[in-house]
Amino acid sequence: MLNPIKVGILGLGTVGGGTVHVLQQNAKEIARRAGRGIIVTHACAKELNNTYSYQTDKIVLTKELSELVNHPELDIIVELLGGTAIAREMTLQAIANGKHVVTANKALIAKHGNEIFAAAQEKGVMVAFEAAVGGGIPIIKAIREGLAANKIKWAAGIINGTSNFILSEMREKKSDFADVLAEAQRLGYAEKDPTFDIEGVDAAHKLTIIASIAFGIPLQFDKVYMEGITNIAPEDVQYANELGYRIKHLGITKRTKKGIELRVHPTFVPNKRLIANVEGVMNAILIESDALGQSLYYGAGAGALPTGSAIIADLVDVTRALTTDSDHRVPHLAFQADALSDLPIVPIEEIEASYYLRLSAQDKLGVLAHVTNILSENAISIEAIIQKEPISGAEHVSIVILTHQVVEKQINKAIQAIENLDGLMEKVIRIRLEMLNTEMLQN
Ligand code: HSE
């Protein structure tokens, strides 16, 4: 067998520790697959994180990132720094030095991937990023290689475990958002500053990557429409339940006649769909493609060992491909670099979806009739409508409406007219609804 491949890790925290642990624990099995051993010889970290037990005596520790990316003995750099500024700099430096890079950094790929892949292509090295989307789920490989025969129609994914955990708990325990967020922070699922998770930024990074490899388009993070879960009220979770739906925070990308839709937001999903039953911190990505039909990829979206599993799969891929001509490797973004197409991204006002609307109105004659008139004037067809009995003592009632598919700007126009009605107490709550069936793409 050839000499082992030498790896340097930038950032030996939880995920880095998990990666070294699995590499050592399964060393023989990994070498049988890769054709040679893969060993971490250098790591950059303030201190060793030994949450996962691994042998440290053969790992050279340093605090200088540049020492690793410039180290002549290292073949592959694993970038686990997080953030984008230093991570970008170190990744480009490693590439310039002819090193292959494996990263779990979704923000880095979503925002700087076009530049990084161009540099890697130029230099004939690989940049692998399986761990950037869906944690341990091999979704990049599934789309890029497993579905290579297919024209992909759409993908819809639960790609942020923190948001999914919060929505699951809100439904199961009938709790409100703030209480569950505090619990998620206590359990270590949500970070101290949870903004990226609960405002949809993390999911938007991941969706950018999925869309690029699904449709062969450049990475376009700045064009993703982003909505988080902070405005989801317990009553919406309950009404969804009553109507046979679950609210899931989804990243959705679709190929339509107008272009590519790129959006992350809370979504009503029929509760009979498998993906609607993905609970807690788990992730799942549902893909509709022309030859295979629907396929669903489910698993742990975070965590030291699952993320380590994805990183090591990339290390094995890179190791196997080392002797191949760089022009004949699997392209970074699934399609040949000169075959990417610049399809337009559909503005959010132009997307088509169904909608859940919740209105809080005075309990008086004619309000409901006015509301339905406005909807019909705007050519919005109603799928279901419920007026809830007023809670005792309250002067207002909740009216819940599900619409058929309509262009978003049309529903916005109708909402504006409804909010101007005499007797409306609060702003209308609007949540998009997707059936996630094969007909989802008839527009
Ligand atoms: N913060 C992410 C999540 C995990 O909550 O899913 C890492 O991508």
Automatic annotation (TrEMBL):
Q: Which Pfam families does the UniProt record give? A: ACT, Homoserine_dh, NAD_binding_3
Question: What's a Gene Ontology MF term here?
Answer: homoserine dehydrogenase activity
Name of the protein: Homoserine dehydrogenase
Swiss-Prot/TrEMBL catalytic activity = L-homoserine + NAD(+) = L-aspartate 4-semialdehyde + NADH + H(+)
Q: Which organism is it from?
A: Candidatus Marithioploca araucensis
Stretches assigned to the ACT domain: 356-434
> What is its EC class?
oxidoreductase
**Family, per entry:** Belongs to the homoserine dehydrogenase family.
> From which domain of life does this come?
Bacteria
Q: What is the lineage of its organism?
A: Bacteria, Pseudomonadati, Pseudomonadota, Gammaproteobacteria, Thiotrichales
Q: Reply yes or no: does the keyword Kinase apply.
A: no
Q: What is its EC number?
A: 1.1.1.3
UniProt-listed PROSITE patterns: ACT, HOMOSER_DHGENASE
Report the CDD domains cross-referenced here: ACT_HSDH-Hom
In terms of InterPro entries, this protein maps to: ACT-like_dom_sf, ACT_dom, Asp/hSer_DH_NAD-bd, HDH, HDH_cat, HDH_CS, NAD(P)-bd_dom_sf
Pathway where it operates: Amino-acid biosynthesis; L-threonine biosynthesis; L-threonine from L-aspartate: step 3/5; Amino-acid biosynthesis; L-methionine biosynthesis via de novo pathway; L-homoserine from L-aspartate: step 3/3
